[in-house]
């Protein structure tokens, strides 16, 4: 067999590798506590599940869905964006339901990237932006995210010849893995930059609803002129604890939505209708569960930040997202510190280097483990003196 070159270029998907390690330890009878994966432990709210159950019994929903989604679901998405961000979207032209944001992100690359084309991709970043670019035959130009810039790409540092070549820019705030948030003013500058160089902006915003201390993240589409150049990916995964149901959306510029719809409709057949109906329930019913869940994550954040500080790590509490992003002690790399935590404490964290070269020196801890597991993890860290780093 002769596989395509892209297969040999693929690294094992970060979380597949982490899951393998966890399973190996657990199979050996070891009690592993994992802070690795951003997958809410809290179940989908009951009113959403009830609607799903009811819809799943209706034979109408047993057949192929339409790729562009139910008109009622597109309207529910537009209605939610209006209520949450004050944005008016045309549900027929500016909204597209997705089988999770990840599906749309992967397919989006095919809309813009021909072999040899350039995508501007944040580093560290969610791996699908660069993998999608590679699948389409393009090159990623990595925009470093640095602590001193608030983990925002420095637009002025992008060489003009790269910017002229670039067809698309990926951004993600609240950010995975750094948990940084972006002010609207920064998004305004991105729109100006995108217009100057004729670049399409794909903003990935699945964490806008997971925020703390009363902070409300903005939508990229609230930036001045954003609808001319951008779409935003969003998801029901983290907002309503629906990761397993696979449902998300893209909204924004009509031409970009249309291109994504054309690619998608040739490759998949849309979201199962019963899940779209559950999505309508999620977006249009009471939003109380969001506050309630954010309260739970905020308490976990505070417990975890205090525990990490107590062992000498320098941590900034996140304002949003499901992650705590922290520097590893002097002398360690991301991987050596994560490896040592696993060996010594049976605690799994994600090495920042798994998100790109500029994630080196950091680890990411997720807040999506049960309170009981969190407390057991904290207990394991309490009073721990981090061993001296291995000599290099
Ligand atoms: C930044 C980012 N984008 C997209 C996704 C995928 O979301 P979905 O479950 O909607 O595919 C994730 C999931 O962890 C993410 O962290």
SSE map:
Layout: H1 5-9, H2 14-27, E1 33-34, H3 46-56, H4 71-85, E2 95-98, H5 101-112, E3 118-123, H6 128-135, E4 139-144, H7 160-165, E5 166-172, H8 184-197, E6 200-204, H9 226-229, E7 230-235, E8 248-252, H10 254-267, H11 273-284, H12 288-310, E9 323-327, H13 334-345, E10 347-348, E11 350-351, E12 362-366, H14 371-381
Parallel strand pairs: 1-10, 3-4, 3-5, 5-6, 6-7
Antiparallel strand pairs: 2-8, 7-8, 9-12, 11-12
Structure explained in plain terms:
- The protein is of the alpha/beta class and 392 residues long.
- The protein has 2 domains: 5-44 and 288-381, Alpha-Beta Complex (Aspartate Aminotransferase, domain 1), CATH 3.90.1150.10; 63-284, Type I PLP-dependent aspartate aminotransferase-like (Major domain) (Aspartate Aminotransferase, domain 2, 3-Layer(aba) Sandwich), CATH 3.40.640.10.
- Helix content is 41%, strand content 14%.
- It is built from 14 helices and 12 strands.
- It has helices at residues 5-9, 14-27, 46-56, 71-85, 101-112, 128-135, 160-165, 184-197, 226-229, 254-267, 273-284, 288-310, 334-345, 371-381; strands at 33-34, 95-98, 118-123, 139-144, 166-172, 200-204, 230-235, 248-252, 323-327, 347-348, 350-351, 362-366.
- The chain has a 7-stranded mixed β-sheet with strand order 2-8-7-6-5-3-4, sandwiched between helices.
- Helix 9 (226-229) links the parallel strand 6 (200-204) and strand 7.
- Helix 4 (71-85) packs parallel to helix 11 and helix 5 (101-112) crosses helix 6.
- The longest helix has 23 residues, at 288-310.
- It is globular and about 60 Å long.
- The two termini are 42 Å apart.
């Amino acid at each position: 067999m002769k596989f395509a070159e892209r297969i040999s270029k693929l690294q094992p998907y970060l979380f597949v590798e982490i899951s393998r390690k966890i399973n190996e330890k657990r199979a050996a009878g070891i009690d592993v506590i994992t802070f690795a994966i951003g997958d809410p432990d809290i179940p989908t709210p009951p009113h959403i599940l009830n609607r799903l159950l009811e819809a799943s019994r209706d034979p109408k929903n047993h057949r192929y869905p339409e790729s562009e989604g139910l008109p009622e679901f597109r309207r529910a998405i537009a209605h939610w964006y209006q209520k949450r961000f004050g944005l008016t979207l045309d549900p027929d032209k500016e909204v597209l339901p997705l089988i999770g944001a990840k599906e749309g992100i992967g397919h989006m690359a095919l809309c813009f990237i021909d072999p040899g084309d350039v995508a501007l991709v944040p580093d560290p970043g969610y791996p699908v932006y660069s993998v999608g670019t590679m699948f389409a035959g393009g090159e990623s130009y990595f925009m470093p995210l640095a602590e001193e810039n608030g983990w925002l790409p420095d637009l002025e540092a992008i060489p003009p010849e790269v910017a002229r070549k670039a067809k698309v820019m990926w951004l993600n705030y609240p950010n995975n893995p750094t948990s940084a948030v972006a002010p609207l003013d920064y998004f305004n500058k991105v729109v100006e930059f995108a217009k100057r160089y004729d670049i399409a902006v794909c903003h990935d915003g699945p964490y806008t609803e997971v925020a703390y201390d009363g902070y409300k993240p903005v939508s990229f589409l609230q930036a001045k002129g954003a609808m001319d150049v951008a779409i935003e990916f969003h998801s029901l995964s983290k907002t309503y604890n629906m990761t397993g149901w696979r449902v998300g959306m893209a909204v924004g510029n009509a031409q970009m939505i249309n291109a994504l719809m054309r690619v998608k409709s040739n490759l998949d057949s849309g979201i199962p209708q019963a899940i779209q109906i559950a999505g309508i329930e999620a977006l249009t019913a009471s939003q109380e569960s969001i506050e309630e869940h954010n309260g739970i994550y905020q308490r976990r954040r505070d417990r975890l930040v205090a525990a990490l500080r107590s062992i000498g790590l320098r941590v900034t509490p996140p304002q949003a997202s499901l992650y705590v992003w922290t520097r590893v002690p002097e002398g360690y790399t991301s991987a050596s510190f994560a490896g040592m935590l696993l060996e010594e404490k049976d605690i799994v964290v994600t090495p920042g280097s798994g998100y790109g070269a500029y994630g080196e020196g950091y680890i990411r801890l997720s807040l999506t483990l049960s309170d009981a597991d969190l407390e057991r993890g904290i207990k394991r860290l309490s009073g721990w003196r981090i061993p001296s780093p291995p000599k290099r």
